[in-house]
Amino acid sequence: VEEVMPSVVSINNYYTASGDFYGQTYSEEAQASGSGIIVGENETELLVVTNYHVVADADTLEVQFIDGETVEAQIKGSDSDIDLAIIAIPLDSLLDSTKESIAVANLGDSDSLKVGEPAIAIGNALGYGQSVTTGVISALNRELTVEDVTNNLIQTDAAINPGNSGGALLNVKGEVIGINSNKIGGDVI
Fold first, then answer.
1. Is 138 part of the annotated catalytic residue set?
2. Coil, helix or strand for 33?
3. In which band, very low, low, confident or very high, does the pLDDT at 93 lie, cut at 50, 70 and 90?
């Protein structure tokens, strides 16, 4: 956990919400929070993977790093069907102290997972900042359909709360083996 936390970020999505109230259309600024994982760096950008639903419809995206520094980010690519997005942060927008405090996550092999092995989830649970929960791999290739799109997912019993979306699911070696994205059953925490 200590090695991986510097690679997990909090993401704030500022978007315009609109609706209809007794025939009157309204819009207002709204905010949603989620998590992301630093997965790479090129000559000019830091690359973060997250869930598509964390960044969807964003007017502005902000990423907060482990040292508390917050910078603006842009969506680089996305696939709503598999609920994944890559966002980019210009390296020149980062303080040197932030660059020294962050890390690129080590990616593991999700194909080698076994049911019952330990699982660790890190994310921005409930928008309060990084938190850690533990559990086991409960099932592999769990079929889940959301909005007419079916995916085969890793199921864990580690607590996944609102804000954990886009965060890291780890094995005991500290390798990322999944991205927290959905929960099965109910709307409660």
1. no
2. strand
3. very high
